[in-house]
Design a protein that fits this description.
The chain has an 8-stranded mixed beta sheet with strand order 3-2-1-4-5-6-7-8, with helices on both faces. With 428 residues, it is of the alpha/beta class. The chain has helices at 22-29, 42-49, 60-64, 101-111, 130-143, 181-194, 205-235, 240-247, 269-279, 286-311, 340-348, 399-405; strands at 13-16, 35-38, 69-72, 83-86, 118-122, 151-155, 174-178, 199-201, 320-324, 353-357, 372-374, 382-387, 406-414, 426-427. The longest helix is centred in the middle third of the chain and has 31 residues, at 205-235.
Length: 428
């Protein structure tokens, strides 16, 4: 039987997982080739077929104008593909350990579907070695095919920034890696089609996995450092934002800002690296120290809020609190790992009447109890306001407006340095 040269294979692409990563990736590829876009969520598929993206990253026109894509929740539709790009979530469990059940399940399902010379590409965030140590053995087990002989793997870490309208898949630098030179060339050509001259080949899958995970670890550590400085300077009665502005005049100072760290990347990826590090006998100190500080920040905010209210003689019992923002970052509907939920959970136990206003969040996706998601700001005579997320809509909110909807004596806690220092009681 004549051996097929992998370089002569025409790739038939399927993308698995249509969240913040998979959907824009699917649409970009579908500008150039037929794409099967699969997600287990039937509601998600029905919405996409109508042009509705509940992440608000893609417009209805952008979805419906592309006709080379098939949205499906029928796994058998993937059977004619030979290139599978996996974009499933890789969260952590309640003990901060990697939860790779979704990844293992989809890998085993695809393994039963692939044929010779198939390529499986992962975009989900991993710890170094996961592709070849966990995924490859699963593929070999269920496919009865041999790695780098009958099938190939690649790792092309996602670089999606929810809410960012400028940095997109087709204009950012993106890493690609593969299990051998020929499959690397094939994967490079695939991605280079949607983003010419921005695709960077990496020597190995492990290097690409490592690069991805430290990108977010670095940000987590830097934010943790600034959060710690904020705590120190607050005790010294020094405005951290004034300090950062002054320090930023030096040519090599890189500004980061204090805040609550949520989302699926920064607050999760360090645990993946820490898990792998511990498995080889080294307990990481800086990585977990950064996590510890950032995990403490909701408690710090709660403490400051309650102390500040008491100092203004505002009764905590039956107090009315307005929280501006529920998402983990500005200008996107993503509430994954938002620390606002932790703040709400704690404060609601203290018999505080909590209203949350966030025009980016739909009421039906909020499952947590203990607060009311309001549709608009009204004169409810609030005792305190927590300015938590810097949505563009919130930049129009003035201190004078808050005076109209709050009691004469109210506490304003500004986590995003929005208001003039003379207007607020406390900044983060």
């Amino acid at each position: 039987m004549k051996k097929i040269n992998i370089m002569n294979i025409k790739l038939k692409v399927s993308i698995i997982g249509l969240g913040y990563i998979g959907l824009p990736l699917s649409l970009e590829f579908a500008k150039y080739r037929n794409v099967i876009a699969y997600d287990i969520n039937k509601k998600r598929i029905n919405e996409l077929n109508k042009g509705i993206d509940n992440t608000k990253e893609i417009t209805k026109k952008e979805i419906l104008n592309i006709n080379k894509i098939k949205f499906t929740n029928n796994f058998s539709d993937l059977r004619y593909s030979n290139c599978f790009i996996i974009c499933v979530p890789t969260p952590v469990n309640k003990n901060h350990k990697p939860d790779i059940r979704n990844l293992k399940n989809i890998t085993s399902k695809i393994s039963k579907l692939i044929s010779k010379n198939s390529i499986i590409i992962y975009e989900s965030t991993f710890y170094p070695g996961l592709t070849e140590e966990i995924c490859v053995p699963i593929i070999e087990k269920y496919s009865n095919l041999k790695y780098n002989k009958d099938f190939y793997c690649g790792y092309c870490p996602e670089r999606i920034n929810p809410g960012d309208k400028f940095r997109k898949i087709n204009n950012i630098k993106k890493l690609v890696s593969a299990s051998n030179k020929k499959s690397l060339e094939l994967i490079y050509n695939l991605y280079n089609q949607i983003n010419p001259n921005n695709i960077i080949k990496v020597k190995s899958i492990k290097i690409a996995e490592s690069a991805k995970v430290i990108e977010n670890c670095q940000r987590d550590i830097n934010i943790a450092f600034i959060n710690e400085l904020s705590i120190i300077f607050n005790k010294l009665n020094i405005n951290i934002h004034d300090v950062l502005k002054a320090a930023s005049t030096k040519w090599n100072f890189v500004p980061y800002y204090p805040g609550l760290v949520g989302g699926h990347c920064i607050g999760v990826d360090p645990y993946y690296l820490a898990y792998k590090s511990k498995s080889i006998g080294y307990n990481p100190k800086i990585v977990l120290s950064g996590r510890s500080i950032n995990n403490y920040m909701p408690k710090y905010v709660i403490k400051n809020l309650l102390t500040g209210m008491k100092n203004k003689n505002i009764s905590i019992n039956n107090a009315r609190l307005l929280i501006l923002g529920l998402t983990f970052k500005e200008n996107c509907p993503d509430t994954r790992n938002s620390k606002i939920f932790e703040i709400i959970s704690t404060l609601s136990k203290k018999n505080i009447n909590i209203h949350v206003y966030d025009p980016w969040v739909k009421k039906n996706i909020v499952e947590e109890k203990g607060f009311k998601l309001i549709k608009k700001l009204t004169n409810f005579r609030y005792d305190a306001v927590l300015y938590a997320v810097a949505h563009n809509q919130f930049k129009k909110i003035s201190f004078n407006f808050l005076k109209k909807i709050c009691k004469k004596q109210f506490f304003l806690y500004d986590l995003k340095n929005h208001f003039d220092v003379k207007s607020v009681d406390m900044k983060l």
